[in-house]
Amino acid sequence: MPAEDLVVARPEGLYCPAGDFHIDPWRPVARAVITHGHSDHARVGHGHYLAHRDSGGVLQARLGEIRLDLLDYGEAIVHNGVRISLHPAGHVLGSAQVRLEHGGQVWVVSGDYKLQDDGTCPPFEPVRCDTFITESTFGLPIYRWPTQAALVAEINAWWAANAAQGRCSVLFCYAFGKAQRVLHGVDPAIGPIVVHGAVEPLNEAYRAAGVALPATRRVGDGAPGPALTPQELGQALVLAPPSAQGTPWMRRFGSYADAFASGWMQVRGTRRRRGVDRGFVMSDHADWPGLQEAVKATGAQRVIVTHGNVPVMVRWLCEQGLDAQGFHTEYGDEDAGQEPAA
Questions:
Q1: Most exposed: 8, 210, 297, 331, by fewest CB within 10 Å?
Q2: What angle do helix axes 288-298 and 310-319 make, rounded to 10 degrees?
């Protein structure tokens, strides 16, 4: 890579030579700027962490005692002559794009992002730059998400139909991000809402940040509050991480209807492989039109693609007349490694 590049790929992760820090590194480093709290981007072992203020609670819960500095969106610091600021990515609570300015250049490292505003975190904010580093998890034309309103209407209708039959509705979705999107949108008048133990700590972080979520219940030994009656369980919506599927924890819900929420549900056969009754197309990443829109909004003439469908995205970018390439990274794809410890 030319010496003037603000970000280069190293074995530890994305590295800013001028500032001597990494962004979302996957191996231990001295200084790390973290775009969000999913475990493939925020890992244990770094000497110092910098992240958005709303990521603080999640990072400390997941990583334990760490040296952590927090910034608000738009707030800037200068480190070794590099001006660093964080801007909304619209991915999950506290998710941020990292803007770097040095030597007359502006680079933006987007982390993971989506353009659809789901109401649980500030929406994606395009940041003008010379070079944009983007993901491409769903960088294929087949991936196009329903609107948030249409998605929530589908989930409510499925839950209400099951409740009318006295059948519990179990929705498998990742504990950090997707579960809160569901909670923020569904109609709690349909019935009680039960969450797995891995979900509730993340709900608390969202509520502490001012995100409106309905009341949730826990079940099992030691769960706070009175136990749900069999009638209440038959009308309940249960949100659980995919790791709960097939475990003894599920037996308490009797003969339940189940579903899975993921962007991969756009692909025929995924629901069958997951072994569930229903699939909802729901992702915290940008779809194909969203990726295109985000790149164009930055005005960047150079784009670097980090993970997902990298060759397809790079080819499309080159067809638009942009200077495009890929970086090899170790970030997960949709739903990979995203469950924080309970």
A1: 210
A2: 50
Closest CA to 146 of 271, 290, 269: 290
Tabulate helix, strand, coil % of the chain (nearest 5): 25, 25, 50
Order of strands, sheet of 68-71, starting from the edge strand that comes earlier in the sequence: 8-10, 13-16, 21-23, 31-33, 48-52, 68-71
Specify whether the CB–CB gap between 263 and 286 falls below 8 A.
no
Which pLDDT score, from 0 to 100, does residue 334 have?
56
Q: Would you call 284 helix, strand, or coil by DSSP?
A: coil
How far is 212 from 153, CA to CA, in rounded Å? 18
Report the relative pairing of strands 82-88 and 76-79 from DSSP bridges: antiparallel
Q: What pLDDT digit, counting tens, does each position of 14-70 carry?
A: 999 999 999 999 999 999 999 999 999 999 999 999 999 999 999 998 899 999 999
Q: Give the rounded distance of the alpha carbon of 22 from its chain centre.
A: 20
Query: Tokens standing for 136?
Result: 């491409």
Whole-angstrom distance, CA of residue 21 vs CA of residue 7: 10
